[in-house]
């Protein structure tokens, strides 16, 4: 029995794909299926930048990195902090004293999301875990004195959500990075001494199923050793079979190489892309990180979030919706309200979203805007506005005598009539239940 087992294992491992460190090989890796099925993730930007909570998570760069500095940040600091106050001093006020990972994970679960992506390290270089390569600039040595990445991992996984980590390749002010930059990226001091050891360690320690790479654009992928890292990730890492990555692995990689494509922040294609993609966007339209002076009219309304999710899924994308927690570890209640509202809508309409595929037609706007998704012979028509009358006209579907139409959440089949012999149908709607989401789903059981 044992010898049979050994032989079988040997055969299996021989047939498993082996990737070489070049884009032709790496780009050919099939994306693990859980990712496309998941459709919705929650993005979390949390770090020392949450402490000033002013402008955005790019605070440090705007204040002291870019030339000339942004006067808005310079003035804010000179008016509110003593002369000589440095950015690293903010870390002491990153207390996370109210951080309850179970409460966060409950909110994420209630949103209907299937994965969560936390900033393990943003461009400021501060790690939300005890990185041995980030001495005194991590959440265990300073600030919260806590393994934020690990504590959230446990709570998220306990609710059967996939856990991913955002990692910035570059660090604005890391001395080794600045040396390499000065050398036109002909040297790799930062990559070999800091970035790679830290990244390998992070993967082995936390087994993230998404690596959301960022901060790649100043240097080519050869500087970052991206293909070598990805070959290891896909061949030998503890997450080789389930991990997905994005496309930010060096200047020119976006929308071209890697796993799924982010292309650019808040990317919104106008037609169906040919490669799996993800739209990342933020409830606070002006920032990814927490802003203390955020105003309600700067937030995405729930109906806009749902419309955006539906459009993204109709175009074959995943939707990664960001919230920025406070330095105390609270998810602002207005963000929580949006997430729970999204989950309430998905509770009823999720069958049109999760595991769906783009349909032959992505949208039409005959009576009201309609977005299509599909599952086998079932087509979902999601209305993102309330029709002015009690009927809705759909021109794209080709119905037959035995086609059945339902309002999702309502078991009674709806009456409908053909528009013309070539296709299209007019559906008689029941009273549409009120929903702050302003979106209703028709299920069309077509036989074609
Ligand atoms: C989550 O934690 C509870 C309580 O400790 C445990 O009973 C349950 O099995 C865990 N579920 C998962 C999916 O890890
Ligand atoms: C980085 O890439 C070079 C080749 O480009 C390779 O020789 C080296 O071993 C790589 N180092 C790591 C740590 O991946
Ligand atoms: C649908 O059509 C209406 C009326 O022409 C227009 O105002 C609206 O912007 C359109 N919506 C979409 C999503 O194309």
From TrEMBL:
Gene Ontology CC terms, in alphabetical order: lysosome
An example Gene Ontology biological process: glycoside catabolic process
Residues spanning the signal sequence: 1-17
Keyword Nucleotide-binding found: no
Keywords annotated in UniProt: Glycoprotein, Glycosidase, Hydrolase, Lipid metabolism, Lysosome, Signal
Enzymatic reactions: a neolactoside IV(2)-alpha-Fuc-nLc4Cer(d18:1(4E)) + H2O = a neolactoside nLc4Cer(d18:1(4E)) + L-fucose; a neolactoside IV(2)-alpha-Fuc-nLc4Cer(d18:0) + H2O = a neolactoside nLc4Cer(d18:0) + L-fucose; an alpha-L-fucoside + H2O = L-fucose + an alcohol
Location in the cell: Lysosome
GO molecular function: alpha-L-fucosidase activity
UniProt record similarity statement: Belongs to the glycosyl hydrolase 29 family.
Oligomer and partners: Homotetramer.
Role, per record: Alpha-L-fucosidase is responsible for hydrolyzing the alpha-1,6-linked fucose joined to the reducing-end N-acetylglucosamine of the carbohydrate moieties of glycoproteins.
Name of the protein: Alpha-L-fucosidase
Organism of provenance: Pundamilia nyererei
Gene name as annotated: FUCA1
